[in-house]
């Protein structure tokens, strides 16, 4: 081909590749396979290598630059960059609405609401439709030129569908599925892991070598047509549609709301759905829809008056550490608990956070009266991330581990090889209360209606001091207690009677032996038929039972009071079922041997504990976390983050009904 023929072919290839990009990233449909598209890109690359004089900046082959940059250049923004003010509840958003109405002098305002993607704000400049410069926000006036890194992001068009001069703004982010794979890879290479997708994305944009940015597989949503003023549509809703027409990838989860109540409804809906998306969302952005209203409302020193970030209650917050209280657990372990000035985290008031142990206090360097950052992730107990040294007061007090038990006054000891401290008194009142609470919990005897407060009440009245005493209670013992009427006392005694028959794994768990949790108890129960003979078995030969667990079992059974407890429980009527008894009296089934089931959400027809027991009875496994080796995710109502992770890993997701059919 001569030069003109090559030029024509290159032009056509670029157009087809750009259309494929637009179709995939903007319209969410694929007009050709990845292999076919790669073939076209390869042909384009080969032609450009033969005729380098025909290479243009908007060519798809130019997404990854040449040698790394020495430094980032500074970019003066054509349009001043603003940030949004944040609000967190319905009262604040209604106040915002009233203020907008008052300042505009109108009775009703319509809004456009968009998901607030947790990523990195970027500014894109186009000349005659061709991508010229990409920059970070910086101080709002001057940012850094990260064009080469932004070119690696396929969802950012190198050539718009119209040859216009314009500036657009958006958010670069890393998908959660990409983040998980990246950290898996880094773990295998013994590299430090990224804390979250936002940090990973920010790190990629700050790379001087665009090849590293390309490897991070970043994505981008555009949400603002910011220059020239004359070309910006008359409403925010129309602006988002216009950006899509021009070739930008716009998040389709935006909505036009006629009033503030519809805004609140959208906010509530997405608070429930946010974890279903493959990217982090930390709220919604609420914008007065009409541009004439936006112009009239204007800006404050740092934010538009006509827009606000309506966030969900955050997972982190700052507060004051007011004092530290030391709690004694069922094993005698002493745990420092931070008492905090109450603060709202994820919609709940948090006033306590665990400090774990003395080593953690030393690592944090935290003191009483410090300003601390507290995190609450999911259902995990809140914990302190760090303290803010700049805000430390002069009268901050060092946290000291007590030398004597705060409950019984006995000596506090630290065992060799342990980070925790313990009360040396095995009969400490706090230890007994916590042991009994554990004994009746769902993982053990699962006695409905017998929670920690009732345990405290029974112990205070002298009705219960050991686990076996629970099974000797009569309805008449309870009637005179506060909050116990005829019906409630009958219900509790019935629940206690019902719980007397228990499977061996749950019985082992109920004993509260150190290092013996559900999984270990299940392994022991498979090999042992008589609980009393357990310490005589060759425990270390059981796969999954380590030396610490073995030593702990032998120590527990060496205590006379524990042997007496087993006899007392038997005398009180407690009966241990054969390990995982299958229907019809047959030996243990291996129907699910080698299969792993993980559960998420609320099950309606069977408790999660019972469901796990059924799987184990059929030879399967039920770990708490999900990974690539998981065979099934059982989906209940209101599922958590495991659901999204299962989809990303390609794990089979089944309903509760499908699960019940499997275990029949």
CATH architectural group of the largest domain: 2-Layer Sandwich
Helix content: 25-40%
Major sheet:
7 strands, antiparallel
The coarse silhouette is: elongated
- The H-level CATH homologous superfamily of the largest domain, spelled out, is DNA ligase/mRNA capping enzyme
How many distinct folded domains?
6
Overall pLDDT metric: 85
Radius of gyration: 32 Å
Oligomer: single chain
Structural class: alpha+beta
Work out the helix count: 23
* CATH topology-level name of the largest domain: D-amino Acid Aminotransferase, Chain A, domain 1
Low-confidence stretches: 579-587
User: How far apart are the termini?
Assistant: 70 Å
CATH class category of the largest domain: Alpha Beta
Strand content: 15-25%
Short description:
The protein has 23 helices and 23 strands. With 664 residues, the protein is an alpha+beta fold. The radius of gyration is 32 Å and the shape is elongated.
